[in-house]
Specification:
alpha+beta; five-stranded mixed sheet
Length: 248
């Protein structure tokens, strides 16, 4: 995020380079239960981002020295495929993917009832198939749906969205150009039933008023995304009921 470019990211009418207004998010698409061999899974598209999440467990935690006798641990692995960006990404974990894996696991620990599964591990895998800014939010959104699809008890599911600043305007759900050349990026994730914030980061500079506005915009989008998450899980449940009835 440089904040320096000759590109006009927002015109004088408040229209962005992808045609959205400053307070408009990209289209959402979520499907639950897309992988047969995972305990739970989800596929998420937010704009041009394409994310696949899989959950395995709860299962015995290995190695045993990582076990917690009072609760399960959540182990998350966020990975960007080499073909997910225009400049081929070097395979394997890097500093950014390790950081995103950590903050995703910490956010999920706020809603998963880990105390029900002592000495267990809940393993979450997030694969970025196509990236266009906001993959940490899309990945957390997908992981939350995948956990619910696995039938793991949770207080709520977590939606995540980002806001930011470009061309001195506060914007909702930054795209790649706005993320690369804008002035600030603020990813946020919430527990919708309580509006508790479980992830909040900021890259760049904003005034206090701008930050408050960005957080408010992002939280509003999170609630819209939450409805899409619930609809995906309802469709998945309805499909399971039909499959059971057909088998009988």
């Amino acid at each position: 995020m440089s904040g320096h470019t000759d590109m006009i990211l927002v015109d004088e009418n408040g229209i962005r380079i992808d045609g959205r207004t400053v307070d408009q998010h990209r289209p959402f698409k979520i499907e639950a239960g897309v992988l047969n061999n995972a305990d739970g899974s989800a596929y998420v598209e937010i704009g041009k981002n394409k994310i696949l999440a899989a959950v395995y467990g709860p299962r015995e935690c290995h190695p045993k020295h990582m076990q917690n006798p009072t609760k399960a641990i959540i182990q998350c692995k966020y990975n960007m495929q080499t073909f997910s960006v225009s400049d081929r990404k070097k395979p394997g974990p890097d500093r950014r993917s390790i950081e995103i894996s950590k903050i995703t696991a910490e956010a999920l620990e706020n809603v998963v009832l880990t105390e029900l599964y002592p000495r267990a591990s809940i393993d979450v895998y997030i694969e970025v198939l196509q990236a266009n800014a906001g993959t940490r939010c899309a990945g957390l959104t997908a992981a939350s749906v995948a956990l619910a699809d696995a039938g793991i008890p949770m207080r709520d599911i977590i939606p995540a969205c980002a806001a930011g600043k470009a061309d001195n305007k506060v914007l909702l759900d930054l795209n790649k150009e706005e993320d690369n050349f804008g002035q600030a990026d603020v990813p946020i994730a919430i527990v919708p039933s309580t509006d508790e914030i479980v992830l909040l980061q900021m890259d760049g500079n904003m005034t206090r008023d701008e930050l408050d506005k960005a957080i408010s915009m992002a939280m509003g989008a999170c609630h819209e995304l939450y409805d899409v998450q619930k609809d995906a899980l309802k469709r998945r449940y309805a499909k399971r009921v039909v499959e059971v009835e057909t088998d009988e």
